Amino acid sequence: MRLFIVCAAACVAVFAATMDEGELEQMTQAAKQGNSAAQYNLGILYLQGERLPKNEVLGAQWLQRSAEQGQPQAQFILGICYLNGQGVSQDGALAFKWIKEAADRGHAQAQYSMGTFYTQGNGVPKDDAAALKWFEKAGGQGHAVSQYELAYSHYIGRGTPKDDVRSFSWALKAAQQGFLAAMVSVGSSYAYGEGTMQNFPEAAKWLERAAMNGASIAQHLTALFYTNGIGVPRDSAQATRWLRQFMQTRQQEREKQPIPEAAAAQFKRIQQAAKQGNADAQHELANCYSAGFGTPQDFEQAALWFLKAAENGNLSAQYRIAICYGFGAGISLDYAQALRWLKEAAQQGHVQAQYILGNYYYEGRGCEKDPKEAFVWYKKAAEQGHAVAQWCVGNAYMFGRGVARDHQEADFWFQKAAALGFDQRPDSTR
């Protein structure tokens, strides 16, 4: 949280650097006469020792005067001071009070902080629904981190029902502001068709942007895309470049963040159960290898254990191994095998597998193009509430793709998709 004070100080320091001694004295006099902006600026200068001798106590006192007059930035920084014990005695209750005052006045960073208080149960009972409301206030003002928190909340169903479409929408807003984790999320969503139409060129674009900014998983996926010509032309030189960069980044990450002992112990327990043939444990072990939880990240081992779990009937693993085959992630690219496992999962009702299987048939991945079979699987996913599949069904009816044209049915399915947040125009090229 000290970072917020440093950032605020940097802004005030730029302003103060242009002031001569007379102007600095005028600001001091204005502060003494009750000018809240001058009180805030003076407080920051004392807090950080910019143009004035560093005095955190005096800095906090000036911030308090400004905050009491309703200056939101002063209220927020004063709350951070109480949170950190900077110039005042550490006091969680007063930290919450002042940050909430700022948040109620529309201060986006304070609104984000309120959200984190509720997600973490910091000074208040943990309440994901309350956190979501604060993130929405900040996100609506363009606060990128809050937008990403909203994307994550909708993706996992934290404080709200799980909703991939709304998750993607918020992630895209944050990504467009350059927020790295959101860029990875948007690229992955386009790649996997989660919350939006599967679109490999868009996936490649966003993942390479994230890769250039140091996201290791994006570097790995970008290498796979160039290796297999997914969304970009095949390019072995670019594939090699990004694979090397991925390995270098992962090594740096491991050096900075060694594996926690508790995670390593949990990994060993999962591994033991997996080796005894437990399909759920095998799936969980694959997830550990994929995410680097409790063990170094290893995509080959992840694919191996996804396959074992899939062969033992684990539904989620059947979908995940299909994705591995479809991207060549940890295993050789094989659209036919991807199709096989998508069918296995789709026939058991896995809604995302049904949608992706529709894409395979529509595009002819691992099979001949078959719009009729694509429609069958889009319809099954649509009937389970998959918004993008509902749009695909509407589009199929609109243009007679694998089914007779029927504008009334098209409108019905377009409206259902729109009600779930996927409000796209019909596309005659799709």
Structural description of this entry:
By secondary structure, the protein is mainly alpha-helical. Among the domains are: 1-105, Tetratricopeptide repeat domain (Serine Threonine Protein Phosphatase 5, Tetratricopeptide repeat); 259-345, Alpha Horseshoe (Serine Threonine Protein Phosphatase 5, Tetratricopeptide repeat), CATH 1.25.40.10; 349-430, Serine Threonine Protein Phosphatase 5, Tetratricopeptide repeat (Alpha Horseshoe). It has 23 helices and no strands. The protein has helices at residues 2-17, 21-32, 36-48, 56-68, 72-84, 92-104, 108-120, 128-140, 144-156, 164-175, 180-192, 200-212, 216-228, 236-256, 261-275, 279-291, 299-311, 315-327, 335-347, 351-363, 371-383, 387-399, 407-419. Helix 22 runs antiparallel to helix 23 (407-419). The longest helix has 21 residues, at 236-256. It starts with a helix and ends in an 11-residue tail after the last helix. The mean pLDDT is 94.
